């Protein structure tokens, strides 16, 4: 009997070991196929991985449906494309072949179609306004800069292609933008008369705003000794300059004389210590200068008893004889007493 009991005990032990081994193999199998260490994920599908395909060139609805069925989130954005038709996938992130977990997000770039825009006329416009339609169409904008005396900084000087030309997203539009007037050195006007120096400085884009005199020089009275800032100093256009003139007199600002009678202009110049020099204009000069006369000072033609004839054309103002058409130096400029002021008078 004892031998029988020992035999049964051995059988029961073998059964227990076999059951334990079978359970261990079952656990290994479950954990091996489970995407995570949690066996529940194998049953629920949570945590499984997906290998992304190549979606470029495929219509968005089909790709979006495929990804959502695989348990992935989908986000989209649009972009112009010269290769892919509107509504098809242009690019993706992550890239094809990437393994991602279920629930991950995939971004798809969807084509808006070919980017085309008619080149607008942007010369004279601010850069940000000029490039806005080009940026919207995905056109590359090359911006070059250049100094210019006419257009203020930031305005477009030139464009290529020209207005009306059609450009696509793979094209490059070139815009030349003004940096404004270039800095320039103050010219040397020493030894010149004040009037001549003022003219030269004006040609260089500078303004004489103050004139002072000095005795600390060997130059004759009325000659320009120098400027402040000094000659050679690099300044911006329209920089105000002080001109130093030999002598002891104080500079006087010239009054506006255009449109006045020669007699009145002479009297004003003489009172200020200037020397008037009256020149008679030719008919051509008179006609050209008449258009610049201030309307309030333009001489009125003599009254006529004839009834005026209605007309849509305007007749040019004909200045009366002896009217000042122009002056030099100009009104507002400074000159020392004794300076000759030229007056151009109507014949």
Task: Give a written overview of the molecule.
The protein has helices spanning 2-33, 40-44, 60-69, 127-136, 194-203, 262-271, 283-290; strands spanning 49-51, 73-79, 89-93, 99-101, 105-111, 116-118, 140-146, 156-160, 166-168, 172-178, 184-185, 207-214, 224-228, 234-235, 240-246, 252-253, 275-280, 324-328, 334-335, 340-345. The chain is of the alpha/beta class. The chain has four domains: 44-111, Trypsin Inhibitor V, Chain A, CATH 3.30.10.20; 116-178, 2-Layer Sandwich (Trypsin Inhibitor V, Chain A); 184-250, 2-Layer Sandwich (Trypsin Inhibitor V, Chain A), CATH 3.30.10.20; 253-294 and 317-345, 2-Layer Sandwich (Trypsin Inhibitor V, Chain A), CATH 3.30.10.20. Strands 2-5-3 form a three-stranded mixed beta sheet, covered by helices on one side. A three-stranded mixed beta sheet has the order 7-10-8, covered by helices on one side. Strands 12-15-13 form a three-stranded mixed beta sheet, covered by helices on one side. The protein is elongated, with a radius of gyration of 45 Å.
How are the elements arranged and paired?
Blueprint: H1 2-33, H2 40-44, E1 49-51, H3 60-69, E2 73-79, E3 89-93, E4 99-101, E5 105-111, E6 116-118, H4 127-136, E7 140-146, E8 156-160, E9 166-168, E10 172-178, E11 184-185, H5 194-203, E12 207-214, E13 224-228, E14 234-235, E15 240-246, E16 252-253, H6 262-271, E17 275-280, H7 283-290, E18 324-328, E19 334-335, E20 340-345
Parallel strand pairs: 2-5, 7-10, 12-15, 17-20
Antiparallel strand pairs: 1-4, 3-5, 6-9, 8-10, 11-14, 13-15, 16-19, 18-20
């Amino acid at each position: 009997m004892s031998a029988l009991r020992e035999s049964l005990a051995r059988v029961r032990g073998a059964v227990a070991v076999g059951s334990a081994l079978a359970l261990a193999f079952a656990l290994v199998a479950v954990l091996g196929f489970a995407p995570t260490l949690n066996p529940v994920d194998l049953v629920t599908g949570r945590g499984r991985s997906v290998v992304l395909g190549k979606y470029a060139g495929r219509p968005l609805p089909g790709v979006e449906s495929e990804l959502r069925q695989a348990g992935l989130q989908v986000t989209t954005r649009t972009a112009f494309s010269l290769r892919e038709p509107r509504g098809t996938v242009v690019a993706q992130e992550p890239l094809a072949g990437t393994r991602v977990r279920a629930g991950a997000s995939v971004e798809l770039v969807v084509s808006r179609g070919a980017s085309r825009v008619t080149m607008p006329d942007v010369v004279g416009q601010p850069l940000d306004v000029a490039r806005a339609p080009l940026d919207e169409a995905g056109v590359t904008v090359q911006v070059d800069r250049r100094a210019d005396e006419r257009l203020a900084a930031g305005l477009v000087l030139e464009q290529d292609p020209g207005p009306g030309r059609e450009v696509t997203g793979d094209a490059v539009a070139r815009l030349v933008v003004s940096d404004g007037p270039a800095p320039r050195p103050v010219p040397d006007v020493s030894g010149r008369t004040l009037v001549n120096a003022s003219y030269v400085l004006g040609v260089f884009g500078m303004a004489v705003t103050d004139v002072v005199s000095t005795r600390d020089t060997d130059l004759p009275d009325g000659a320009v000794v120098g400027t402040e800032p000094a000659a050679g100093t690099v300044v911006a256009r329209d920089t105000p300059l002080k001109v130093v003139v030999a002598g002891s007199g104080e500079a006087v600002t010239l009054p506006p004389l255009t449109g006045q009678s020669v007699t009145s202009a002479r009297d004003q110049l003489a009172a200020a210590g200037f020397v008037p020099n009256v020149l008679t204009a030719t008919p051509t000069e008179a006609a050209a200068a008449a258009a610049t006369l201030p309307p309030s000072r333009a001489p009125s033609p003599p009254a006529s008893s004839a009834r005026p004839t209605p007309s849509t054309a305007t007749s040019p103002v004909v200045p009366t004889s002896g009217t000042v058409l122009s002056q030099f130096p100009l009104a507002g400029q400074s000159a020392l007493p004794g300076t000759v002021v030229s007056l151009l008078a109507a014949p």
